[in-house]
Amino acid sequence: MSPLTRRQLLVLGAAGAGATAAGGAGLWLTTGNGSGYTGGEDLAEPQELASRDRVLELDLTAAPARVRVGGREASVHTFNGSLPGPTLRARAGDTIRVAMRNGLQAPTNLHVHGLHVSPQGNSDNPFVSIDPGGSFDYEFALPEDHPPGTYWYHPHRHGHVAGQVAAGLYGAIVVEDPDPVPVARDRVMVVSDLSLDATGNLAEVDQMQQMMGREGQIVLVNGQLRPQLRAAPGERERWRIINACPSRYLRLTLEGQGVRLLSRGLGRLPIPEEVTEVVLAPGNRVELLVETRQGVSALTAAPVDRGGVNAMMGGAMRGGSVSGGDPVDLLTLAVSGSAGSDPGPVPEGQPLRDLRNEPATAVRTLDFAMGMSGSMGGGMGGGMGGGQGAMMAFTINGREFDPERLDETVAAGTVEEWTLANSSPMDHPIHLHVWPMQIVQDGDRDVTEPKWQDVVNVPARSQVKVRVAFDDFAGRTVIHCHILDHEDQGMMATVQAR
User: 287: which of 91, 262, 357, 423 fits an S-S bond (Cβ 3.0–4.6 Å)?
Assistant: First the structure.
């Protein structure tokens, strides 16, 4: 693999600019507003399915569906006919059994993102492939000490992940808190983006968008455009926010109300932190405690510059940086009426485990890179259709994904320290299945408090050091970029715990 040359970048940039000028779902026109769409309906939450007697059993069908999005008819893909799919609620120690059927025209499977469950057999196994018309019975057994939090599910069949998630295949998972936080309402908010053509069908995606990571023309919350919420002053709500976008980063603000960070996706912070903004990379989740005051506020997603062709060119080309366009109003919260009752104090969460106090048995470095292989002039392969000539390569330690190859072997029951190095000019949010990561160093800055995430953003031309406890399970799984187009094009590696 060779780095991108200036000539190659100019050709790529011209192709992307042409696609944008032609009116496609261009990366640099994504405002998230979507002309011709209407919004402002009351927020609707997906159907909830809860475990009983420590078991949650459900049928889950992935299939095309016709739904209304922003006041227009849209042809998308859904789980069980809804956008998003049903919310699954369980507790630590429960078993989730999913009878999944593939009603798509392409192979698929199911990944329970963030859950600490076995990667083997019919559990969270990314190597399962369900053919069109086929079915598969999953069983996910949560450990008795599984962290509470907000998780989610989506397809993970290599080569089809970005397209299937972008088409609407995602849903929330909630692992209940054994020590509940007193709130007036517990809301699930799945944020996604979508591009449709003039007839309401899924828009085609060009090669430049796949290289950069697609961003949809409209940004939705629970499948709705700019929905509304209502509350009384003095109430406390728990907002579980999932970034289910294939590539879009979300810099969230909610002015005019009190906001505290309760969780970064798994487990609770011992004491909630007051925040003015939170940034969610693709795949990230947060739980916010929103303490209502008065007036109307918008939950806004401001643009995040995650690099791109412009960065590769040293700023020489206009429009080649993926920044998400203008700020997007995701929803509005109207607070009025008589004051609600005092919700009482928030109980402290359990102290978070700190792996810096535990010996690391091994250290390793994973380098996430992108470049060109071959000469310019042909198709761009690696999950984008192949063809002759140049191919964009997305690699980890210089190799594109091969499901038959074993890339990293770790000893089950040990702690390792990994340096996630990004030698490319774009940010890469890195997701390790099964085992969450504790961030110990971000660039040159030591992270002094335990910070746990299962998707860790590694900025362009930088690195993040993490520690991982390979507890509880043996088996083979994957680590990959959660800009899902990059994953599909090869930025994924296998990890086996023995």
Answer: 262
Kindly state the tokens that stand for 296: 């109307």
Are the C-beta atoms of residues 114 and 436 closer than 8 Å to each other?
Answer: yes
CA distance 444 to 17: 36
Would you state the structure tokens that stand for residue 238, as one six-digit string? 């728990």
pTM (2 d.p.): 0.91
Q: Which tens digits make up the pLDDT trace of 393-407? A: 899 999 999 999 999
472 vs 276: CA distance, rounded Å: 37
Residue with tokens 């962290």: 147
pLDDT at 36: 75
Distance, in Å, from the CA atom of 367 to the CA atom of 387, rounded to the nearest integer, reads: 26
Task: Give CA 17 to chain center in angstroms.
Answer: 27
Which of 190, 196, 168, 192 is closest to 35 using CA atoms?
Answer: 196
Please state, in angstroms and rounded to a whole number, the distance separating the CA atoms of residues 448 and 455: 19
**Torsional sign, CA 42, 43, 44, 50:** negative
Based on its alpha-carbon atoms, the radius of gyration of the chain, rounded to whole angstroms, reads 22
Mean per-residue pLDDT, 213-239: 96
C-alpha 3/C-alpha 369 separation (Å) is 9
Structure tokens at 431: 């997701």
Amino acid at 239: W
Supply φ then ψ for residue 153, to 5 degrees: -130, 150
Determine the number of helices (DSSP H) and then strands (DSSP E) in the chain.
5, 32
> Which of 488, 498, 490, 478 lies closest to 113, judged by CA?
478
Residue whose pair of structure tokens reads 């507003």 in the numeric block: 33
> Could you give the 3-state DSSP secondary structure of residue 237?
strand
Question: Which range, 318-327, 333-342, 365-374, has the best average confidence (pLDDT)?
Answer: 333-342
Measured between alpha carbons, how far is 429 from 115 in angstroms, rounded to an integer? Answer: 18
Residue 268 has phi, psi (to 5 degrees) of: -110, 150
Kindly tell me if the per-residue pLDDT of 479 is higher than 80. Answer: yes
Tokens of 31: 């405002």
Tokens of 298: 């918008």
- The answer to whether 257 and 362 are in contact (CB under 8 A) is no
Rounded distance between C-alpha atoms, residue 322 and residue 214, angstroms: 9
